[in-house]
Amino acid sequence: MMWTQRIVLLVLGLGLLGLTLNLIRRRRLREEYAVLWVATSIVTLLFVLFSGALFDVATWLNLDHVVLMLLIVFVFLVAIMLHYSVVISRHSEREKGLSQEVALLKDELDKLRDEVRQPPPPPVEPKPKPPSLRT
Amino acid sequence: MADRPNQTPPEPSFDLGGRRALVVVPAFNEGEAIARVIRDLKRHAPWADTVVVNDGSDDATADEARAAGVHVLDLPVNLGIGGAVQTGYRYAWDNGYDLAFQFDGDGQHRASLLAEVARPVLEDQADLVVGSRFLQPRGMTAYGLRLLGIKVLAATISSVLGQRITDPTSGFRVAGRRAIRLFATEYPQDYPEPESLVLLVRQGLRVREVAATMRRRRGGQTSIGLWAGFHYMSKVILAVLMDMVKAPVRLEGEVAS
Predict the structure, then answer these.
(1) Nearest-CA distance from A94 to chain B in Å?
(2) Which of A124, B69, B98, B238 is deepest in the core (most CB within 10 A)?
(3) A25-79 confidence digits (pLDDT tens)
(4) Does B95 have pLDDT greater than 60?
(5) Could you tell me which residue, B208 or B250, shows the higher pLDDT?
(6) Mean pLDDT of A10-28
(7) Pick from A100, A102, A131: which is nearest to B86 by CB?
(8) Among residues of chain B, what percentage have pLDDT more than 70?
(9) Residue A135: inside a domain, yes or no?
(10) Distance between A103 CA and the closest CA of chain B, angstroms
(11) Residue B185: closest CA among chain A residues belongs to which residue?
(12) Is the dihedral of CA A111, A112, A116, A121 positive or negative?
């Protein structure tokens, strides 16, 4: 691999790694979501260190080494996007559950509030228990 | 506009055998229709409690419903029909109801038919009963392309489930205890009516259809336009096929009572 290519990859890999680590350090990015970005930057750096292996695999697959590199990067990007879809699905499921919980709790709260405001029932009759109150 | 009294007479003395029934009314911007729907329910089904699930409406739906004297579950954001209906099922499960009806807030369903639809559940013949517009020719309220779409959808779902389903998009239904429990845990979000049938059958629950006429809708908007119908149909079929490969839902613990 030409030294200019190595330098460009080295800068890109280190840059991505530094950016990701810095975002984690400043708590702007949770580790859970950073794993794939760190992995991507490490793979980029591996290209620089083991360019011989890259050439071998490229020859074996009958591909140009640049095409192989792009292919690997592409696979990582697809993995990251798939990961995002999973995360988004999980979040919308949680948002749905939380919204429902809010609606149910608000209703429960209204019931309790009405109960508190009502004058106490005569002591002879047992106080009617609203069906929603779980013990 | 009063309900024409030509259907089954009001059944205020309907015998539930000591079981408790809840009518879940999902409503999104039904401020104009909701009060009439609740009056209809109070007249024909005084044996059931009613809860309106207000799906983040920007009109007076919640106020109208409260003024009509029923409980309102106010969703803080618009979840769509699936999320709204599931809120009702969670309420039904939490409060120990034995029957949970689904009844649209736009006035197209007939409260006078609730008792009839509930019968197979009460007799333990089914876990979910769907009020079908197509089991008798009189009940049909769909025409042209929409009718064709529903027919294709019904044929697909029937063959997938190995059971004849004539009206998979009907939102007029009643769930028994087992179905309430399942729906409180898992309820489809995208196309809930047809998808929930697949979910039920795959979980080993029994689905039955009963003939039910419906009114032409007044007030509110249909969720499906004529030309969007084909798009809708193909997406539902895709969703149903995806439901077929999903892992079964595991419910925690045992069924109460």
Answers:
(1) 11
(2) B98
(3) 898 888 777 888 888 888 888 888 888 888 888 899 998 888 888 888 889 889 8
(4) yes
(5) B208
(6) 90
(7) A100
(8) 85
(9) no
(10) 5
(11) A97
(12) positive
Residue A60 lies in a domain: yes
Amino acid at B32: E
**Per-residue confidence (pLDDT) for residue B2, from 0 to 100:** 45
Give B185 to chain A, closest Cα distance, Å.
10
Give the contacts of A123 (CB within 8 A, at least 6 positions apart): none
Query: Of A96, A99, A104, which is closest to B94 when you measure between CB atoms?
Result: A104
Is pLDDT at B3 greater than 70 in this prediction?
Answer: no
What pLDDT was estimated at residue A135? 47
Which residue from B minimizes the CA distance to A92?
B79
Pairing relationship of beta strands B48-54 and B71-74 according to DSSP bridges: parallel
**In this structure, what DSSP letter does residue B142 have?**
-
End-to-end, the C-alpha distance of chain A in Å comes to: 71
B190: contact with A, CB 8 A cutoff: no
Exposure letters B36-63 (e unless 16+ CB within 10 A, then b): bbbebbbebbebbbbbbbbbbbeebbbe
Determine the residue type at B240.
Answer: V
Count of CB atoms situated within 10 Å of the CB of A77: 12
Which parts of chain B are beta strand (E)?
A: 21-27, 48-54, 71-74, 99-102, 128-132, 173-175, 207-211
Chain A residue set in contact with B, beta carbons under 8 Å = 95-96, 99-100, 102-104, 106-107, 131-132, 134
Which of B61, B54, B90, B60 lies closest to B75 in space, CA to CA? B54
Predicted confidence (pLDDT) per residue in B226-250, tens digit: 667 778 888 888 998 888 888 888 8
Count up the domains in chain A and report the number.
1
Instruction: Report the length, in residues, of chain A.
Output: 135
Mean pLDDT on A5-29:
89
Does A123 map to a domain? Answer: no
Look at residue A124 and tell me if it is in a domain.
no
Sorted by where each starts, the structural domains of chain B and their CATH numbers stand as: 21-245 (3.90.550.10)
For residue A126, the model assigns a pLDDT of 56
Domain that holds residue A86: 3-116
Write down the pLDDT at residue B16: 81
